[in-house]
Each structure stands twice: as C-alpha cells, then as structure tokens.
Amino acid sequence: MRRIKFLSYLLLASVSISTFITAAGLAQAQKADSASSQFDNAQYYLKTPNEKNAKPIDGMLVLDATAKTARFVAKDKTQFEIAYSGITGLLYERTATPRYSAAVLVSPLFLFSKSKKHFLTIQYKNPEGQGQFALIRLDKKNWQIAVATVEAHTGIKIERAEER
Questions:
Q1: Which of 159, 155, 152 is closest to 29 using CA atoms?
Q2: How many folded domains does the chain comprise?
C-alpha cells in the first residue's frame, strides 16, 4: 500500500514538473515573440563553392519580429539576412556521437554517454528566386527556445529529425 501511495506521489510530482517546464518554455517563447530575440553561442556553417567542407563561424542568431527577418551576426558583421516571407522550410536535427576520446583519456564510463549537437536548417529563396539554405548549430542551453521562437515568428512548422 505504501509503495502504491509513493508511486502515485511520484507520478503527480513528475506531471507537475513537466507542466511547469512546458509553461515556462511557452512563456519564454511568447515573450520572445514580442521583440527581437538573440541566441548566442551559435555557429553558422558557411559553404563556399571552391571548398570541400563548410567552415563554422561563431556568432549569434537574431530573429527580428518587427523587421520579420532572421539573420546571423558574427563579430558585428551580418553573415546572412533572410526575410520570413522567403523561408520555404525549416528542419531541426539532433545528432549524438559517442565520446571515444574522453573514454580513452579520462574514464571508460564515457562510452555510455554521447555528445549531442543541435542543428537548424533554414531553407529559403534568395531575391533572384534561387533555392538556398543556411545551416546553424544551436547552443545546448538555448536550442529549445530558439526552435520554438523560429516556429512562432515564421508561422512555419519545423520538421524534426532526431538521431537516437
């Protein structure tokens, strides 16, 4: 009997906590919806035609609700600026890779954990009408709010591809 009572309290507590977290996330997304939002510690992967690999550029993703644009700013220089009306699709991806080097150098227990990376791909049409994309790696601390804010600002449903 005590076990059932304990489990019911545990279930009630977990439901209360998840409701609180969801409400807090929605409140932050609604708050972010009213003004421009900045998401620090992001990386924009710039692909140039003559290079094989894209080079990461550190900066911040800025979503401006008044100008209705998404832009990436690095060292006070705008790398790209996309009007919300030009966005044709949004994709969120989460990748997970084992921590082999930490397992070898620190402890074999790191083999049981994985490093996770969060990516947002913005598909858009440039002013000439050509299809383009921007690949952005989001910070692990603010990726959820960034994804919710992008979806709220643009009105476009984000497609999700999560690797387990």
A1: 152
A2: 2
* Residues 1 and 41 reside in one and the same domain: no
Q: Which CATH number goes with the domain that contains 46?
A: 2.30.29.30
- Quote the CA–CA distance of 35 and 40 in Å, as a whole number: 16
Question: In which order are the strands placed within the sheet that holds 69-74?
Answer: 77-83, 69-74, 55-64, 37-46, 131-138, 114-125, 87-98, 159-162
Give the CA diameter of the chain.
70
Domain that holds residue 20: 1-34
With beta carbons less than 8 A apart as the criterion, state whether 46 and 57 touch.
yes
83-133 per-position pLDDT tens digit:
999 999 999 999 988 777 776 777 777 677 788 999 999 999 988 889 999
Co-location of 118 and 150 in the same domain: yes
User: Is pLDDT larger for residue 34 or for residue 33?
Assistant: 34
